[in-house]
Amino acid sequence: MKCYKLSSTTDVLSLFQSLGVTKEGIAILKQKAHLNFIYIKDLKSPAANILKQDALSIGADLAVPKETITCKKPLVDALLIANDKQLKELSFKEKAQPFGLKALAQTLSQFSFTCKDDFTVMGVINANEDSFFQGSRFNGKSALHRIEKMIDEGAGIIDLGGVSSRPGSLAISEEEELLRIVPIVDLIAQNKLTCKAKFSLDSYSPLCLEYALSHGFEIVNDITALANDAVARVASKYKATVVLMHMQGAPSSMQKAPLYDNVILDVDAFFQERIEKAHAFGIHNLILDVGIGFGKTLEHNLQLLKHHEHFLHFGYPLLVGASRKSMIDTIYPAPIEKRLAGTLALHLKAYEHGASVIRAHDVYEHVQALSVLRALNSTF
User: Fold this and answer.
1) How far is CA 48 from each of CA 38, 44, 78, 110, rounded to the nearest angstrom?
2) What residue numbers bound the domain in which 213 lies?
3) 135 CB neighbour count, 10 Å cutoff
4) What is the CATH number of the domain that holds 364?
5) Cα 326 to Cα 108: distance, rounded to the nearest angstrom
6) Contact 236/229 with Cβ under 8 angstroms?
7) pLDDT tens per residue across all 380 residues of the chain
8) What is the C-alpha to C-alpha distance for residues 138 and 195, in angstroms, rounded to an integer?
9) What sequence ranges are listed for the domain Pterin-binding (predicted)?
10) What is the C-alpha to C-alpha distance for residues 141 and 122, in angstroms, rounded to an integer?
């Protein structure tokens, strides 16, 4: 008899199938194969003691401060460790418990999900001369050729922008932004490229979005996450998909000492609010973007990428956009032109933690890297 240890990233469904496990058996076993680590903040001490005992009774566990059992502190933070099956059982158990555990049960039930292994690469095209990466700046026919090349390389979405949102950048008028994007939007429409890929406009200008959506664009990539009701109305009118991105502050000042109580929970609360607003305008096709580099320190960015899977509980696709950003330079000093390797490392980690839309300047390299990683994760 021989045995060997499998990596935690192995696709267990593929393994179960190769072993000849029945469909019924796979349905039961896959719930036991995925381990969840759930951080619970401000849990009442009596609730923590109850939850600890209930977790232990089903084979899960709850990490709590040592003084929890004496209830010296009214509130404690805790870490729940449970597989999908245990999470469902615990959610059911806590529905009958006091001290706020009924509400917690509802929240826990939202965390039973499985990351999908499909992906879409969103290629970046900028129609402005002040975007932070010179390699993404194009105009006229050069933009058309670049878009066609990205589609050939495997881009499923092309994201066009006419205004820089890099740290320290200043806003421009809607009219100026429109002048920048119209020639490219027109070329895209004239060459029927919207039949080959989806197109998004990186903008929060109702005027520009109206023009793009009326010419075949399908996605509104709004860094202000529908802060402007006029944008919401335009998106609703065209039944567009909307990317809701989190940003603390404005591009001109967002990197001046950004501060959060808890970046995961703060971004989560923001998404909850903006999702409700989108629904109020009849917008239900959404993509969520945690906004890497938009009002975040390096530590904030790393936390969001490491715990990206958390945001899947909203039930919407997750977009990540860390392409060639300054956080790479902070970790390993490198000019923008030499940050491709760091970009791939960040995006592959985000993909493994639930991101399915990858916004990148380098389409070919991303499609190749993600395809290889998907093969590694799905092959026993």
Assistant:
1) 13, 6, 8, 20
2) 120-378
3) 14
4) 3.20.20.20
5) 35
6) no
7) 877 666 665 667 777 777 888 887 877 777 777 788 889 999 999 999 999 999 999 999 999 999 999 998 999 999 999 988 898 899 888 998 999 999 998 888 887 666 667 899 999 998 876 554 555 556 667 889 999 999 999 999 999 988 877 666 677 789 999 999 999 999 999 999 999 999 999 999 999 999 999 999 999 999 999 999 999 999 999 999 999 999 987 776 767 878 899 999 999 999 999 999 999 999 999 999 999 999 999 999 999 999 999 999 999 999 999 999 999 999 999 999 999 999 999 999 999 999 999 999 999 999 999 999 988 877 65
8) 21
9) 119-371
10) 20
- Indicate whether 49 and 187 sit together in one domain: no
Within a domain: residue 125?
A: yes
CATH code, 52: 3.30.1370
pTM for the predicted model, two decimal places: 0.83
Judge whether 115 lies within some domain: no
**Residue 20 burial (C-beta neighbours within 10 Å; 0-12, 13-18, 19+):** exposed
Secondary structure (DSSP) of 232-284: HHHHHHTT-EEEEE--SS-TTTTTSS---S-HHHHHHHHHHHHHHHHHHTT--
**Could you give the 3-state DSSP secondary structure of residue 93?**
helix
Same domain, 100 and 179: no
Number of domains in the chain: 3
Count of H helices and E strands in the chain?
Answer: 14, 11
